[in-house]
Structure formats: structure tokens, C-alpha cells
TrEMBL record:
It comes from Pseudorhodobacter turbinis. This is 4-hydroxythreonine-4-phosphate dehydrogenase. The active site is located at the dimer interface. Transmembrane segments: none annotated. GO terms for molecular function: 4-hydroxythreonine-4-phosphate dehydrogenase activity; cobalt ion binding; magnesium ion binding; NAD binding; zinc ion binding. Pfam families: PdxA. GO terms for biological process: pyridoxal phosphate biosynthetic process; pyridoxine biosynthetic process. Signal peptide: none annotated. HAMAP family: PdxA (MF_00536). The gene is pdxA. Binds 1 divalent metal cation per subunit. Can use ions such as Zn(2+), Mg(2+) or Co(2+).
Length: 328
């Protein structure tokens, strides 16, 4: 039986989401079936699209035409200007995609960028972002954000918090849970039976034996020793400034980092346009382009769909791997 298509949410309709959805369809053709959930009025003028009633119909749509599962919004969109009346429907589209994937009508979810302030102002959105909302819809308490490109996968233990708060937020439980979820995700969705995990230190030179900070000795090493004793292949804590060159990257499958920029600077340096944001620990597959709504260029016809294309491809590959693991 053919794999169901991927559900692509519309995201913020005033951003570049509608444009890159069309560009992705043009680039991928019918080799990777997906459908867009949103209001057709928000697509760029002249877009060739076909309305569908159910996801499976997307598989039969001609390659140059975007399959659209319609979700009417309150009004048309103005590129670059988020409208409060759109917020509730942006949220509803995400929930609808989750429902479809949980029903087995979609293989995975790929989410176009949202504008969190617009959702909060327009609909009282109570979540910090996509990830936390999806965790709530999926009924899980803890998920992990991974950024991935062909040459690197990174996972930050702490994410969108001030740097000054990182030492207090970096607990043994948080580190251990992050590693466990990452390990399971690499096995289930990437087909790696024994993932090789590299863990960065928090401090310069990974603390240099306590001379530049004690967190490696008191927190990180005990967690890593405990997980290694269970059979996990883990190295570290490693100095973050020496673990991202090509020779070092060849020695591991994922880098666990202690804070946001420690993880995101290397991957965005290596592959700024093609990085993918994905969420591990959900009961379904979710990927997303690693960029925002780009209001400043929305509607100008210059948006780059490289990251969305990579996100759709990764969702497709992950769903194939998860399906194979389920059959084994």
C-alpha cells in the first residue's frame, strides 16, 4: 500500500509560507506527495492548485499543480502584515494536520513558519511555539528539538532562554531525558540501531578539569557515565570549539549541545539554507524549515524554498524508516 502523503500546514499566511509551498511542489513534482492545508486565496496569484476532499487524493494530482485541502480563513492575506483575525485559523490548521496524521491519513506533518506574537495577540496562543503546541496535541510532556542537514545533526538541551539562565536550567534530568529521546529518535526515525552521540561541555574547553567551570564534573559526566553503563555509545563532554570540523563530525551521528547558539551556529554555518527543524519524542513525525516567516520579503517572489524542500524530504524519509521499523 502506498504511503499516505505529507500534510504541509499553511503557517502564517502573510509570510513566505504560501510562496515556498508552491516552489516546493514545483521542485518535487509528484515524486514526493504532499498537500497544503490553508485558504487558496493566500496562495500567490496565478498558482495552479487543485482542491481535494481528503489527503489520499493528493497522490493523483498532476505534478505542476498544488493539492490543497481547503481551510477557509476570515479574509485574504496581505504579504508582510499579520492580521489578528487569521490567528485562530492558523492554530486550527496545525491541529487539523495533527488529527490527520494521528488518523493515518497523512504520513507526517511539515509545518510552515508561524508568527508567535500574531497568534498570541489574535487568539491568546498560550504556547512558546510550534513545538510545545504539538507536544500538547500529541499528549507528551517532553520533546526534543533537532536541527539537521546532510553533514550534521544537533540537539540543544536548553533552547529559547537567556544565556544567563542556562546553568540553572541545565539539570541532570533534562540532559538525561534529552539524550534518551534523541537516542530513541535516531533508532526509530533514522534507522541507526546504535547511534553515536557526542556531548558538548558547557564551559570553554569543557571546563578543563574544573579550572573553567565545574558543571562538566558535577553534572554532565555523571549522566554520561550512567548512560554509557547502559550500553549507549556516548563520547564527551567535548570542547565545543573542536567538535564541529569535518573530521570530528565523521565520528558521531548527533551532537548534544548545552544551549541554543552552541547548537545552531555550527549547523547554520555549514548549511544555512538547507537546515531542517524536527521534533523528536512526538507520537508522529514533524519537520519544519529552519527559518521564520520572513515578512520583509513576503510577496516579492524572492523566497528560497530550499529548507522547506529539505524538510519535506526528511519527513518522507523518516516516515519510510518508521514504517519499516514497524514492519520488522
Amino acid at each position: 500500500m502506498a504511503q499516505p502523503p505529507i500534510a504541509l500546514t499553511c503557517g502564517e499566511p502573510a509570510g513566505i509560507g504560501p510562496e515556498i509551498a508552491v516552489l516546493a511542489r514545483e521542485a518535487l513534482g509528484d515524486d514526493l506527495p504532499f498537500f497544503w492545508i490553508g485558504d487558496p486565496r493566500h496562495l500567490p496569484a496565478g498558482t495552479k492548485f487543485q482542491l481535494i476532499d481528503r489527503p489520499q487524493q493528493a497522490i493523483g494530482v498532476a505534478a505542476g499543480t498544488l493539492p490543497v485541502l481547503p481551510h477557509p480563513f476570515a479574509s485574504p492575506a496581505t504579504p508582510g502584515t499579520a492580521l489578528p483575525e487569521h490567528a485562530a485559523d492558523v492554530i486550527a490548521v496545525i491541529a487539523r494536520a495533527v488529527d490527520l496524521v494521528q488518523q493515518g491519513q497523512a504520513a507526517a506533518i511539515c509545518t510552515a513558519p508561524i508568527h508567535k506574537k500574531a497568534l498570541k495577540d489574535g487568539a491568546g496562543f498560550a504556547f512558546p511555539g510550534h513545538t510545545e503546541f504539538l507536544a500538547s496535541l500529541g499528549g507528551v510532556d517532553r520533546v526534543v528539538m533537532m536541527l539537521a542537514c546532510p553533514d550534521l545533526r544537533v540537539v540543544p538541551v536548553t533552547i529559547h532562554i537567556p544565556l544567563a539562565q542556562v546553568p540553572s536550567a541545565l539539570t541532570a534530568d533534562a540532559l538525561e531525558e534529552t539524550i534518551r529521546i534523541t537516542h530513541a529518535g535516531l533508532q526509530q526515525d533514522f534507522g541507526l540501531p546504535a547511534p553515536r552521540i557526542a556531548v558538548a561541555g558547557l564551559n570553554p574547553h569543557a571546563g578543563e578539569g574544573g579550572a573553567m567551570g565545574a558543571e562538566e564534573l558535577t553534572l554532565i559526566i555523571p549522566v554520561l557515565d550512567r548512560l554509557r553503563a547502559e550500553g549507549m555509545h556516548i563520547v564527551g563532554p567535548l570542547p565545543a570549539d573542536t567538535m564541529f570540523h569535518a573530521k570530528a563530525r565523521a565520528q558521531y551521528d548527533v551532537a548534544i549541545c548545552m544551549y541554543h547558539d552552541q547548537a545552531l551556529i555550527p549547523i547554520k554555518t555549514i548549511d544555512f539554507a538547507g537546515g531542517v527543524n524536527l521534533t523528536l519524542g512526538l507520537p508522529f513525525i514533524r519537520t519544519s524549515p529552519d527559518h521564520g516567516t520572513a515578512f520583509d520579503i513576503a510577496g516579492r517572489g524572492i523566497a528560497d524554498a530550499t529548507s522547506l524542500i529539505a524538510a519535506l524530504r526528511m519527513a518522507h524519509d523518516m516516515s519510510n524508516t518508521r514504517g519499516k521499523n514497524g514492519r520488522d
